[in-house]
Amino acid sequence: MATKLSRDFYARETLLVARDLLGMHLVHAGPEGEQVGRIVETEAYKGPHDLAAHSSRGRTKRTEVMFGPPGHAYVYLIYGFWNCLNIVTAAHGTPHAVLLRGLEPVKGITTTSHGPGLLCRALHIDRSLNGADLLGDTLWLEKPTRYRPPKVARATRIGVDYAGDWASKPWRFFDKDSPYVSTVSAAARRRALAPDQGGVRAKLARK
């Protein structure tokens, strides 16, 4: 039986959480029924000193949930269209979070999920879930019964060039074996998932 991640899992050093989230499942019991995706890409944000973090601008109505207890969802809107899901981490009062950037479909996902906005659209996650307790029964993370260890790699974060030296922090973690990482090209993703090649998901399932 899958094991829901505990509060203690989230209440750790944010870089450790960002790495350890790879291979875990994100579950949303929402309007489309239970939808499940395997996490394959994350980014860590460690405000208030990290200039790439929203919390670097201080405690606001938007960032309030980041200052609260770990294990809650921080959902925000970008470009007036895309919702993004972050996981609040570290100690209560420390405004850290981990952005989920890529999901490998497991159950109930019928649209693309390789990108922070796309995965939220695929799982019908929006700002109504901002502040949701991830130990609840609507949105949660779990270690699957058949956990598949990721091949972990790390790189700099995406889209934070404005943050000066903070932009060069290697705080993005991803599974090198997954074609659902956001930076994989469309051509490479098609090749990896082509039915006549067996598909990456089928190959990995046999390991």
From TrEMBL:
One GO BP: base-excision repair
Q: What is its EC number?
A: 3.2.2.-
Kindly give the CDD domains that the UniProt entry links to this protein.
AAG
- Which InterPro entries does this chain map to? Formyl_transferase-like_C_sf, MPG, MPG_sf
Keywords of the record, alphabetical order, are: DNA damage, DNA repair, Hydrolase
GO-annotated molecular function = alkylbase DNA N-glycosylase activity; DNA binding
Enzyme class per UniProt: hydrolase
Q: HAMAP family recorded for this chain?
A: 3MGH (MF_00527)
Family as reported in the entry's similarity comment: Belongs to the DNA glycosylase MPG family.
According to UniProt, the name of this protein is Putative 3-methyladenine DNA glycosylase
